[in-house]
Structure formats: C-alpha cells, structure tokens
Amino acid sequence: MLVQKYVDMLEKKNIIRILSEFATNRGNEIGYDNVFDFSLGNPSVPAPQAFTDTCIAMLREKNPMELHGYSPTLGIPYVRQKVAAYLNQKFGMNYTQDHIFMTSGAAGALAHAFRLICNEGDEVLTFAPFFPEYHPYVDLSGAILKIVPPNTEDFQINFEAFTDMLNEKTKAILINSPNNPSGVVYSAKTLEKLADILKEKSKHYGHEIYLVSDEPYREIAFEGVQVPYPSRFYEDTISCYSFSKSLSLPGERMGYVAVNPACRDSKTMIQMCGQISRGIGHNCPASMFQLAVAEHLEDTADISVYERNMNLLYRELTALGFTCLKPGGTFYIFPKALEEDANVFCQKALKYDLILVPGDSFGCPGYFRMAYCIDTNKVERSLPALRRFVESEYPR
C-alpha cells in the first residue's frame, strides 16, 4: 500500500510548475522566444564571473577529497565561521560557527527549522500572500500551516487577523521579506510590532513562539530600499537563507540556517539539525560549493537587471489601469487582475502567449504574479502583447 498523503499530493500539483510546463510546450510549437513566460522564479542572470573563477581555481589547485568528499555533518567549519562573521559585520549580530548549519538551499533550511521546533499538531502561521510550497514544508513536518488573510492595502502584516489567530498551539511564525509573490519588504515598524506581539504571547502561553524568517531575496532590493534583518528585532528567530537568488546558484542547492545566539538552546538547535538531516536526506551539501560561496558572501549577480525589468512592467501595468504595489525587491510583481476571478483572467492571457500565475495558491485570490527574471529584451517585447490582451479583453 502506497503512502496516501503523497498520492494525494499528485492531485495538487504546483500551479507554477504546471504553467511553466505549458510555456515549454507552447514554445516547442511557436518558438520559446515568442512565449512571454512569467511563471517560474528561476534566476536569469549568470553567477558572478568571480565565483566561476573561484570554482575553476579550486578544481585546479585544491585536493580533490577536500572538494568532493563528504563535508562534516553541520557543514565545513571554515565556511560556518565565514558566514557567521559576514552576518555579524552586516547586521551587528554575534553569531559564531556554532549558530550556523549549512543546508541544501532555503528549502533544506526550512525543512530543518520546522522539525527543530514543531511537534505533531503544532501550528505555524504565515501571512498571505505566501509561497505555496510552504504547505509541504510545514505540513510534512507534522505541523499545520495556517494562513493569515492579506492586508491588500500595502501587503504588510494584517495584525488584526494575526492576533485573532494566535493561540496556545502556535509554535512558529513564518515570514518572507522581501516577499514572494508581492515584492514587498516588511518595514522596521512592522517587524517591531510583530516582535512585541510575539514576546507578549510567548509569555502568556508559557512557551517560545519562534520566528522563522525565509530570506532568499534578502540582497535583491531596489532604489535604496533597506531590508531589515528580523533577528535584530526578535531573539527567538531562525533565519533560513539561500544563495540561489543572490548569486544565481539555484542548481547548486546551497544555503544555511542561522539561529539567533540569544535564542535559548541555540547551539543545541544547530547540533539537532545534524540529527534531523539523517532522517530527511538534506545532509552534507556539496563541499565544493560550500567552499566557493564562502569566498563570495558579499557578492551578488547583476541584480540591476531585475530592477530594470520591474520598472518596465510597473510603468506599463499602471498605465493600463492595473492596481499594483511597486515592489521593493525580489523579481516578482503582484497586480490585481482586471476581473474578480484571476484564474479566468490568466486563462484569457494564454491566448496572447502571456504566462501569468493566478494568486489563489498564494492565498490572495483576485491577484496574479509575474516573475520577471527573464531577459530585458523579452520583457520589452511582452509589453505590446500585454496591451493587446488588456485592450481586447477589457476595453474601457
């Protein structure tokens, strides 16, 4: 007998992947250059040349066993030291290597974080709009993901709904800033208010309520927007990071967990991550890429491309009458559809070879996501198609 929960998941495939597959098939028919595929958040700019050069130099000069052998369970100590020092310098923290655990991307980091702190039946709250893969990340750990309704005015936290949903079963709050899909950055004011509530409720319920901060877009911020570091606001914070977006390395699957040193039992939690990895198979991420990212913690790919694409789309969308918050970061924009049902709206867009993702699976019906991590030339060529779509289907 097969495990039913995974059989059931086959009927709930990720809409983003479904649309991406549709775009690929359509591209086989008419040429992918003619398909304006805004479905998948796959970085489109190359990794920095300096990172590539580091990898080449290591392959030429380092001992093959150092590059290709198993790393220690918690990650290579030198790399963990470098990550800790970088976070301390950038955010004024006091991490040591004992607060850092190397993972297979942010997904691996989140998988460890929820298993660190959640028992069967505990609740994790997150805020719409949210990344739909949070459901399997949380639910398959034995915890239950609950969605706080969105604040569509500015996509900061809906605090009224949030406080109504907090209860003694709440074990963790999951945030994502800069946010996928909205591109919004949580302000310092938002994080301060969130921290105050969590301190009060942790004391009231007699147990820690942890803040799990999903931070893969931390470096992709626009027009001087500052991205506050959640661990600076709340002691019981577990930061989950990925180099997939900042260095354009999604295929290398490299990230880390950073437990706030002020969190009780923080060092024990990192040791526990090593034991969790034995059961979920996220153990010993690639040694070579651990060593490589450690030399490029302050570098990014050319993220200016994303800001250029965002400005092109934001100007066109607002000119066409869309209600749309200007993103502060990421490579996503999240306009309101021109009719109530965003699924119908996105289905109509397919006739114009525009691949848009409806907002229902992000917990925000009536909106749609565009992932603009594509060539700027293609963004520019998509604008006439977008105009034809709006003028034909929604004439004023």
How do the helices and strands line up, and which of them pair or pack?
Layout: H1 4-9, H2 15-30, E1 36-37, H3 49-61, H4 64-68, H5 77-91, E2 100-103, H6 105-117, E3 123-127, H7 134-139, E4 144-148, H8 159-165, E5 170-176, H9 188-205, E6 210-214, E7 237-242, E8 255-259, H10 266-280, H11 287-294, H12 304-319, E9 332-333, H13 342-349, E10 354-355, E11 357-358, E12 368-371, H14 376-393
DSSP E strands, number: 12
Overall geometry: globular
**Structural class assignment:** alpha/beta
> What gyration radius follows from the Cα positions, in whole Å?
21 Å
Under CATH, the topology of the largest domain can be stated as: Aspartate Aminotransferase, domain 2
Give keywords.
396 residues, Aspartate Aminotransferase, domain 1, 7-stranded mixed β-sheet, 14 helices, globular
Provide an overview of this structure.
The protein has 396 residues and is α/β, with parallel strands linked by helices. The protein has two domains: 4-48 and 301-393, Alpha-Beta Complex (Aspartate Aminotransferase, domain 1); 49-294, Type I PLP-dependent aspartate aminotransferase-like (Major domain) (Aspartate Aminotransferase, domain 2, 3-Layer(aba) Sandwich). Helices cover 41% and strands 12% of the residues. It has helices spanning 4-9, 15-30, 49-61, 64-68, 77-91, 105-117, 134-139, 159-165, 188-205, 266-280, 287-294, 304-319, 342-349, 376-393, and strands at 36-37, 100-103, 123-127, 144-148, 170-176, 210-214, 237-242, 255-259, 332-333, 354-355, 357-358, 368-371. It is globular and about 60 Å long. 45% of the residues are buried.
